[in-house]
Model the fold of this input.
Amino acid sequence: MIIIHGHGVNGISQENYDLIIENTDLLLLECPHCHHTGTRVHAYYDREVKCDDDSFRLLVLRVACKFCRKTHAVLLDAIVPYSSVPMETTIEIIHADSSEKIRRVFHKYGCLEFHEIYHIIRNFKRLWKERLASYGIVIDADISRNSIRVFKRQFMQIPCTLCGSYG
Done:
């Protein structure tokens, strides 16, 4: 996957995603596999995103590398790979350090289930907390960029982190 950082567009919506993709030169995207630049549109897929009291389908771009032909999803840094919970909400859940704060998060985001909140907390404690601390990485606005720089993965990207390799 290819993560696009920032661009000053707040919130996840199809309109914001499309705007960022339209303003991104696909020929300048680096393939995470072979590290060449140059991709082309390959396909799109739907993924669920849970925001506030509602969830919606986001049409996500997949690109193919012109050199190695591997395909990659193009995600915004506000999106946690393999999760329907956005980065901002995930960070809010991680910072909920008491049962009362967790209940407030649950009531604030009506589309989330308790098991999803506890799954995020459990995975953070099990797979990310000590790793972040050992590198002195704090959970702030730069967490996505720092996680990719150090671990070669988006923060809270779980399936690839389970293998334990941080190349």
